[in-house]
Amino acid sequence: MVRTIELSRRQQKIIQIVKDNGPITGEHIADQLDLTRATLRPDLAILTMAGFLEARPRVGYFYTGKNGSQLLTEKIKKITANDYQSMPVIVNEEASVYDAICTMFLEDVGTLFVVDSQSLLVGVLSRKDLLRASLGQQDLNQIPVNIIMTRMPNVAMCEKDDLLIDVANKIIEKQIDAVPIVKPITDTQFEVVGRVTKTNITKAFIDLVNDEIV
User: Fold this and answer.
1) Using an 8 Å Cβ cutoff, are 29 and 39 in contact?
2) Among candidates 27, 31, 29, which has minimal Cα distance to 14?
3) What pTM was estimated for this model as a whole?
4) Continuous H helices in 77-112
5) Tell me: the pLDDT tens digits for 25-63?
6) Helix (H) or strand (E) holding 123
7) 3-class secondary-structure state, position 148
């Protein structure tokens, strides 16, 4: 359920006045509420930044006709992967499973991105991949990660301008912890330039609800 933006009683009154009388100046709104223009200024600024009202110089305030849920949805659809990316953790395809396990725990991540000698993406390693490889009596120092990784082209990925909501849907659909942000080199070759994780997405939506994204 989408949380709507909570408005004070005075802000709700301001919206109703603008809805009924717009375009209307700040002075006229203040007169109807029996307040000074200075007292009203913070409320008008909040309502304008939030998208409930639109201000036009020398004309006044207009009602945009959008409710809190619509405005929140619009903001969500403007956030890109680039806005909330983090640094990728990368291992070479010749690295051993043991080294990959050490890297994952030292970096405190749930996903490793595997690259070849040209630093191009060739696969992904998850905690499950490494746990599965650890079972049994195998020597983990002798097993290269390219044997157990999920290989291209079966790797979910995104580009920096992709919408974060689309990346979130991809993570849910694939039931994975993270996707690499890639820069296409050719149609089939990609350089890893970032990552989007469940934590990144959670932070974005918390910021959005707290109205830190404008």
Assistant:
1) no
2) 29
3) 0.69
4) 97-107
5) 999 999 999 999 888 888 898 888 777 888 888 888 988
6) strand 121-126
7) coil
